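Before the break, one more example. Copy the sequence into your notebook; we will annotate it together after we see the structure.
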Amino acid sequence: MTVVRKPLSELRRPERNVRMHTDKQLKEFRRSVEMFGQIRPIVVDEDGVILAGNGLYETLLQMGASEADCYVVSGLTEAQKKKLMLADNRVFDLGVDDLSALDAFVQELKDDLDIPGYEEDLLRAMVMEAEEAAAALGEYGTIDEDRAEAIRDARARTEAREEAAARNAEEYVPPTAGTQPQEEEPARRFILCPKCGERIWL
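Here is what the structure looks like once it is written out:
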């Protein structure tokens, strides 16, 4: 894939865009660009019409940028361009967060939780141990209500994941080694720890 620098003045918005960009999203786009720079190209056709990356384009305009990294896709039919625009917006939505990995990342980052796209107070609530959360909620009335609500939400999500893991406990039958007949071992059940992914035998 060849990425080229193009003047923003040469790029054009499509007549219709299936994704609407809110002020909040554009604000987070800006935070991301300010923190990391442009980390992915804007996808355009040979005429400079944007096929993917409209939010990034709007952000760069608001920031006063004059150029952007672009990937030019040539030779597509109008139908293929529409499909590309639809697929770009939809395929990402089909993914799901690995909550144990998210928890691990947040735990490792600890006090450095300024991350575009995330509410810092909510992330801070995720790194709290149960005792810390209880103590913080005990300060109700002296801490900000939004922070208290974020703490309650984070704990509720953790409990919900643990309950879901328990409901989905899998049955494990130890494998039979070799070819010699062995006395059959009883099946055992386990759940996967929502934080570390390890088996917890029941």
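The longest strand covers residues 67-73. Strands lie at 3-7, 42-45, 50-52, 67-73, 170-172, 188-192, 199-201. Try to locate both features in your own notes.
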